[in-house]
Request: fold
Amino acid sequence: MDIKAGRLSADQLRANFCDLAPAMAPNEARVAAERCLFCHDAPCVTACPTTIDIPLFIRQIAAHNPIGAAETILSANIMGAMCARVCPTENLCEGACVREVSEGKAVEIGRLQRHATDAAYGAGKQFFRAGPATGKRIAVVGAGPAGLSCAHRLAVLGHAVTLYEAREKAGGLNEYGIAAYKASDSIAAREVEYILAVGGISVVHGKRLGRDFRLADLERDFDAVFLGMGLGGTNTLGLGDEPEGVMDAVEYIARLRQAKALSDLPIGRKVVVIGGGMTAIDIAVQAKKLGAEEVTIAYRRGRKAMPASDYEQEVAQIAGVTIREYQRPKTLLAAGGKLAGVELEYVTEREGKLVPSGETTMLACDQLFKAIGQTLLPEDFGGEGGLQMKSGKILVDSARRTSRPKVFAGGDCVFGGQDLTVSAVEDGKMAAQAIDSMLKAAKAA
Reply:
């Protein structure tokens, strides 16, 4: 096994992990904005989970008003800065753009959104302040996109929020799980600072639901509760004992995001990634950028079925990553307790089901990353009864209410979510509005 740190120099690593999509210069942004047709019934707005008024903010950029554009964006999506960097815009707003349909080249909505939010952050422009105190107290569990969005909207509405976060930093997957080349410049931390600067939100770090307090405790002590703790468990390969060299992609990306020096991170020469989603792409590309000589993604279905978008797949291939279709791991090969390779089984698809072909191939590797999805563990929400579940996630209604009257939930931990930062932000925003309505109704009764 040949896993070691420092395969590349500090200068090489710095170049490899620069912005995937660089910031726009003012004139570039103006020219890009002028391509927008400012549609009346804009399909890009419909395609955005947070329904940002995209034609309006682009018109504001075209009129040399990026600060105004930022206010338009952040009023609908308080995490617009990160979403500008990590949203699969090719599947959302830009995929629905009239220019994309007619010309094959969408207006660069994501980069324009970054241009506006960067301008606001750079100018220190705060658009929001906590509203007049209502005397109501809300507990929010999890300082990821859903929790932060909910907490911010509740604070603006005048409610006092206590935000519980198990880790030492807020931000959730934006801080710990997004590829470093998509979120440079400590933008995730800057965005958290901006959100908390609204006032009315107190953050308690190092406290985990189910370990340090129970859901029943929060229901007793607060007027409402929002659960936005994400997913704490990782799916397994189901191949028995795992030799040294098999790693969890999510955990490794978190280490990478928090590393003081990228040269301290150990990486193999021949790396295999199992999975086909965004995490698989992110870890594969970053492994290559860290100095791995060969990186291969093995996915059990075809390329069109991969959760990662066509654009993300292209990013991986440009980086030198090989994508193998219709192959799934069958056996992990070890020598002296250390990973030596993986036996992959070819599968075919019949009526939507995967069928083994009986053929296998061997792939030598010294490091293998599991990127096959995460799951909600009972201890993530305290293991208590009374929360209706579906497919291992919390069941909520359209207002993000759970089966417990005072408890709401959103983000990756709820059933039916899109597993996107922007969707989690919308969940938090909708839950905050529903909580506010509930509290007003109770006061009026």
Notes: The chain has three domains: 23-122, 137-232+376-444, 234-373. The CA atoms of residues 209 and 381 lie 6 Å apart.
